[in-house]
Every structure is written in structure tokens, then in C-alpha cells.
Amino acid sequence: MQRRNRIIRIVICAAFAAAFCAAHAQTLRIGLAGxxxxxxxxxxxxxxxxxxxxxxxxxxxxxxxxxxxxPQLATGYDWSADRxxxxxxxxxxxxxxxxxKLDAAAVKFNLERHKTMPGSSRRGxxxxxxxxxxVGPYTVRLNLSVPFAPLLGLLTENAGVMVSPKAALAxxxxxxxxxxxxxxxxxxxxxxxxxxxxxxxxxxxxxxxxHLDRIVYLPIPDAAxxxxxxxxxxxxxxxxxxxxxxxxxxNDARFKTVKFPGLGYNGITINIGKSDLAKKNPLSRDPRVRxxxxxxxxxxxxxxxxxxxxxxxxxxxxxxxxxxxxxxxPVPKRDVVRAKALLREAGVPNPRFTLMTSTGSVAQQVAQxxxxxxxxxxxxxxxxxxxxxxxxxxxxKGQFDAYLVGWxxxxxxxxxxxxxxxxxxxxxxxxYCSPEVDDILLKARITRDVxxxxxxxxxxxxxxxxxRPIVYLYHxxxxxxxxRKLDGLRPVPDGVVRPQGVRFN
Length: 505
Description:
Oligomer: single chain
Low-confidence stretches: 1-24
Number of strands: 20
Number of helices: 16
Distance between the termini: 44 Å
């Protein structure tokens, strides 16, 4: 009997311990504004994907709240005297989630995969890397065809993400179904448009800075639904808060809000030459129609009406407050009279086109304001609300007239413009190509001198903002809301939620 009671006490204690552990297991539930396109850093191109990668995959470098480049998988670097070679020192003792080690050979594999994999979104970004040498077990040298100022910044993004070579070779273009990286969390499952689940990586090199056991990402495009889930306790954090929801959230003692300037922009990409549809698109056939369209818009009005003032009106790939903003081409004022005159000159007084946008509530509000403003100048715009990942796919195929879409932004201005307008770049959804623009972009890339780079961007603005492959509208603030029980969030201007240091109090 005594032995039986002892066994019962052991079982009860074990059950209590399990219940205690379950109650204290830290699972963070994040509401995303959209579903990531693919969980392969070589192919991916969305902000929700970058947020998930922050948990799954470390990069060679990262940026902090002040946009300073800081070590992650690379512990240091050295430039050659001619700035045409970059030597990286790789962190020792790091393993991928499948147990394979990270070393110089793995870095070489990843960078070459980014450059050569069919469909790579990184191909153009890393084009100046001519070759890669493994010069030691944990030392790799990147040999450049020309000096390349944005390179370190690129290695803080998806181009610097390292995946397991073994897993990547085994799965090929299906790697994104079950990604294997070296980050603080391991992939568990993905249910498309429902959830992505990751769990703590027990062998993470910086595990003392990780306090969460699991993260569940739930893509919820509708901002009102995301907010309702936060309020009901089904979510702990939401990104992409609707600006109109901020005042009520600030008055709710259960939650905290964070607002900080982002690096990105929202604009309207025009199908100038992406596909044969451009031949039927009134915006693409005559530059005067694109100019009229821009003049029909009041950017400040869009910011106030659709964004509740939570953005900065702008007409370039960087905000007017950015040191690389080209002041020679300021934000144009609305001029409906001039817009109508341009349409008459072009012989299309009532142009019709379809404006594709995501199903997100804020995006649709912006589209409706654009539609109403442009109507006053004679434009007949049909709004096509499309699931985000699907809209990206349609844009990639050129199946659109105009596309209202945002770019989450990069620390170096090159990251906001080169891959989006240079000839034949993977993310050039406008199908725009100008040898003059490419030459200017190259000159801006090869110099480190800030004044010289700014001079090149002023030349670039004079050409691109006249051709208008993208009509830039505004630069949104990054808006988060989360339970007061959560601590340790860092407001980094790229809008990526980093799990390091995050915990429940």
C-alpha cells in the first residue's frame, strides 16, 4: 500500500509538473497583414515572409534600431584597398536545424544559390559578385566586378540569409515547403493562408537571448479582423495596424502600440512593358496620360483620408526626410486642370484601366481615394481586389494595368530602387527598361561618397519621375499593437519583428 501511494504521488507530481510547464510555455501568436509568398529566401519577396525568416533564418549581418549594420552569422569583415573584394569572418559553432554545420563552404553555396537559382529574386542584387573563394574553414572572400557600396546592406536582407546546403540540394525548388536554416526557431508546419508554426531551436548559438518556446504566425489580411483577434486574446501582437484604429488602442489599458518611421513606400506600379497587356493600357501608351494621372492625385489628401496622417507624402523611392532624397524633383501639387489638358493632348480624355490591389482594408481605402481623385480628371478606374500572394503572381506575369503595392524598404537607397526599375530585374514589375537609368544606377552603386551618390540619385529622379513606371504616393509609418504582457520588442525601421529578447512578463 505504501509503495502504491508513492507511485500515485509520483504520477500526481509528474502531471502537475506537465501542467505547470504547459501553463508557462511561452507561445507568441502574431497576426500578419498577409500570407508570405514562399519560405525560401532566394525566391521570397514579401514583408510577411521576412518577418517569419527573422525567426527561422539568421543572416550574415543584421541592422539595429539606428540602421547600424551589426554582426550575426558573420562576426566581421575587411574590404580590399580597391573595394573590389570583401572578406567575411564566419561565426564558429553554428549548426543548421538538420545538424549540418555552418562554415565558409556553406556561405559560398548560399550566395551562389542566390545568384544562379532559376527564379531567384536575389539574382540582380548580387550581380556584382563575380566569384566567391573559400580562403579558410570560416573565412570567405567575395570578389566583385566593380566596387559595390550597397553590398553589406544587402547581406542584412534575404540575400544574406543562410540555409542548409544539404536540405537545399535535396529539396531543390521545393525548399520553401519545409525550410531548414540556422535561426532561433525551427519550422514545424505551414497551412496556406491559415498559419505558420515554428518552435524553439535548442542548439541555437545565441539561445540565451531566446525566451519563447513557439511562435504561431497567422496571416489575416483584414486589419479589423486582426484587431478583433488581438482584443479577444487570440493574438498577442499584430503588425500593419490600421491607422484609424490607433486612437482606440491607445485608450485600451490591455495593449501597447508602437509607431515608428519605416523605410518603404507605397505606390502604383504601371505595366509599361511587362507583357502584351501594356499595349492596351492607356497609361503605358502615352507618357502624357501617366503625367495626367499623377497630377490628378493629391498625396497629402491620400495620407490624411486613407492613412489618418500615419504616413509621409512622397514622390520618390525614399522619403523627403531621407538624405538621399532628390530635392531637384519635389512632390508635385495636384493640378486637375493640367491633367485634363494632357489627356486632351493625348487624345484620350476618358482613359479606362484596372487598378489591382490587395484585399487588405487599408490598401482598398487608398485605392478608393485614388479612384475618386482621378475621376475628377476624367479617369475611369476599376478596382480589382486580389489576395496578396496572388496579386504578386499576377504582377510577375504582367497580368495587370496598374498595381497599388508597397515596398517594405531597405536601409540603403539602392535597395528601394535598383531591383524595381533596372532592366530585366526580377522585381521590375513595370517592365521598365532604360539604358540611361541603368548607367546612373551603376554609378550610384560603385561610389561610397554620399555627395556623389546623391548627385546620381538626382539625375535618376530627373529621368525616372518623368517616365513614371511607378507613381510613388507615400511612406507609411510602421504600426504594431500588442498585449502589455509582452516585453522586449525592438522597433527596427525595416518593420521586421525580431524574436531575440522578446518574452512574456
